[in-house]
Amino acid sequence: MARGRGGARGVTGRMAVLGLALFVLAAAAQVAAAGHDYGTALSKSILYFEAQRSGRLPGGQRIAWRANSGLLDGKANGVDLVGGYYDAGDNVKFGLPMAFTVTMMSWSVLEYGEQMAAAGELGHALEAVRWGTDYFVKAHPEAEVLYGEVGDGDSDHDCWQRPEDMTTSRQAYRLDPQHPGSELAGETAAAMAAASLVFRSSNSGYANQLLQHSKQLFDFADKYRGRYDSSITVARNYYASSSGYGDELLWAAAWLYQASGDRRYLNYLTNNADALGGTGWSINQFGWDVKYPGVQVLAAMVLLRGKAGGGAHADVLRRYKQKADLFACSCLGRAGANNVRRTPGGMIYHQSWNNVQFVTSASFLLAAYGDHLAAARQAAQCPSGAAAQPAELLAFARSQVDYILGSNPRATSYMVGYGATYPRQAHHRGASIVSIKADPSFVSCQAGYNSWYHRRGSNPNLLVGATVGGPDEYDNFADERDNYEQTEATTYNNAPLMGVLARLAAGHGGGRRFGHSLADEVSATSIKSDNQTSLPSPSLAAEHASPIEIEQNATASWTERDRTYHRYAVTVTNRSLKTVHELHIGISKLYGKVWGVDKARYGYVLPSWLPSLPAGKSAAFVYIQAAPPADVWVTGYKLL
Q: What's this protein's family per the entry (predicted)?
């Protein structure tokens, strides 16, 4: 589960920092671990989804320790909500992460379905997508009704039961015009649009059905705007919307344009680029909550394929591409203060809880974007003026996947069942309790905790292919069941990973970009730098300039206890002709207290009494520290 209590009754002692000797030994093991079987990892990454299935399992179910569950879901609400996926190690069906999972599974298939077919896994990937979309069709019984959750995290976390034994609440929660939820409706629209492309050639009738649902859900999300966790409040402690719904509306429009070719959706994507933050956000993480980098890459792909149509559309799409380039550059360490942090072992690092989700999603975006750049014989343009070549994007994506698979200081694979050393105590109810097929005796909530959750030793059932939350910022990891921040796996960890694994399994020349014919393909590693489209540095500086100006000055200094302290004043000015809303500011190398801004999920925001910044107006904040000035930059904003 993404956030909130995470399913544990209490977290006991944690790991100590690894000693130098262990790091030396692990480094040697890391070198020995070079070279991975991406095809095997791909197979396992897709197999994991079968362990997450809710409902009546099919005859071809390969995870044999699972059985039917949730067969009465929706009955109390008069609707059939049997099916779908449990998000992680719990037994709740959360709509937002499930929809994002299906969107990313579909995108993985669209980009790299041929590679999956070559590995013998395309059929399994399509089954995984359809298990989700069949549920979404049920969850959308009317044009302006969407069921967004079954069960609730609070009651579920008081229980440690196999899904087959569930005695917790199975209440269903819905969105409608009186209870809007634009993030959830928009993400589900994106999932069904992307999946309609997946099934377009093999099952056109089903694809048409999905596209129709997608269009209705997008209209619902846009017409009745509101945060979904204000309507489905039980989701707030687990999957709260921090980025708002602007990114999901743009994300859905981008996918609907891909799926339908209807320029109404391209118009929406470009006309709302400022107002919904598409060209204002420069965030370097992509996941179930914040979709802006995904939107920016999709929009850039439209431009790279020559589908912009010229004029105003092309201008806005170029601005989207600048943000997509910035995301790539930040991952490669070429975006200055906006660079992504990395652990000593080289892993992208954003947060302690399930950090791997951002590693897999970034790896997929980089691989896919790199392939599209290669096909267009272009590169990502970084703020310094340097170009990040497509081959570099793929190489970095490979390094992140290799880290997950075991090329790391601990020589540990963070995919269960892959490699010699991998997590044995994944935080997962079904995997940690004896299979109902082996012992059908009922396991109660408390018996699950007493007999299984606190039990030391490997889980009785292997959660094959599950990609767990992974190590901390120092590459440390504790394989303990109650260490849910590191040992819980989620569906949205695996969904983008299956795509990049397929890409890597194909080797050189394996890029297959959806929207291109085979004749258009050019290997990401075959493009030479002299073929790249590069812009001169002055133009690049102008392109990456923000309408939000930041000025920082030291206004006072004093010495206390042999340390010199400085008071820094930061002025943020809106130089655009529109009003800035939802301004997010990034601050790093901050070692003291800050006044005048509030901490938020994605940086800092202006105080609640200052919700917007009109054209030409400024806001200020101050901080004190015995150090040089902090790095301050704009993370995101909307212009209205």
A: Belongs to the glycosyl hydrolase 9 (cellulase E) family.
- CATH number for 399: 1.50.10.10
List, edge to edge, every strand of the sheet that includes 594-595.
548-560, 563-574, 618-625, 594-595
Considering the domain architecture, whether residues 570 and 433 belong to the same structural domain is answered as: no
Q: Are 200 and 113 in contact (CB under 8 A)?
A: no
Alpha-helical regions (H) of 2-121: 20-32, 38-51, 95-118
Q: How many domains is the chain partitioned into structurally?
A: 2
Residue 421 near residue 412 (C-beta atoms within 8 A): yes
114 is known as an active-site residue: no
Any idea what the CATH number is for the domain that residue 574 is in?
2.60.40
Under DSSP, the state recorded for 275 is: T
SS3 226: coil
Question: Residue 560 class from Cβ within 10 Å (0-12 exposed, 13-18 middle, 19+ buried)?
Answer: exposed
Q: Which of 36, 140, 157, 427 is catalytic?
A: 427
Model confidence pLDDT, tens digit, residues 622-636: 999 999 999 999 999
What is the model's pLDDT at position 528? 28
523-567 residue pLDDT tens? 222 222 223 333 333 344 444 567 899 999 999 999 998 999 999
Same domain, 490 and 563: no
Pairing of strands 563-574, 618-625: antiparallel
The domain of 140 spans 38-262+392-506
Q: Identify residue 36 by its one-letter amino acid code.
A: H
Whether 427 is catalytic is: yes
Q: What's the Rg (C-alpha) of the chain?
A: 24
Residue 24 within any structural domain of the chain: no
- 66 touches 460 (CB < 8 A): no
Asked whether residue 497 falls in the same domain as residue 552, the answer is no
Strand partners, 570: 552, 621
The confidence score (pLDDT) of residue 520 equals 33
Q: What is the pLDDT of residue 312?
A: 81
- Give yes or no for residue 511 having a pLDDT over 70: no
Torsion of CA 608, 612, 617, 621, to 10 degrees: 30
Structure tokens of 383? 């703020």
DSSP state letters, 549-596: EEEEEEEEEEEETTEEEEEEEEEEEE-SSS-EEEEEEEEES--S-EES
Shared domain for 469 and 605, answered yes or no, is: no
Please check whether residue 479 lies inside any domain of the structure: yes
Annotated active-site residue in 127, 473, 479, 521: 479
Q: For residue 167, what pLDDT is reported?
A: 94
* Residue 454 and residue 590 in one domain: no
Within a domain: residue 501? yes
187 is catalytic: no
**HSE (CB half, 13 Å, CA atoms) of 594?**
23
Give dist(CA 434, CA 384) in Å, integer.
56
From CA 279, how far away is CA 252, in angstroms rounded?
16
Distances in whole angstroms, Cα of residue 389 to Cα of each of 114, 372, 394, 636 = 24, 11, 9, 26
- Domain endpoint, select from 477, 506, 535: 506
d(CA 4, CA 87): 14
User: Could you say which of 50, 289, 371, 488 is catalytic?
Assistant: 488
- The count of other CB atoms within 10 Å of the CB of residue 213 is 24
More confident residue, 551 or 3: 551
Q: Which of 474, 506, 538 is the last residue of a domain?
A: 506
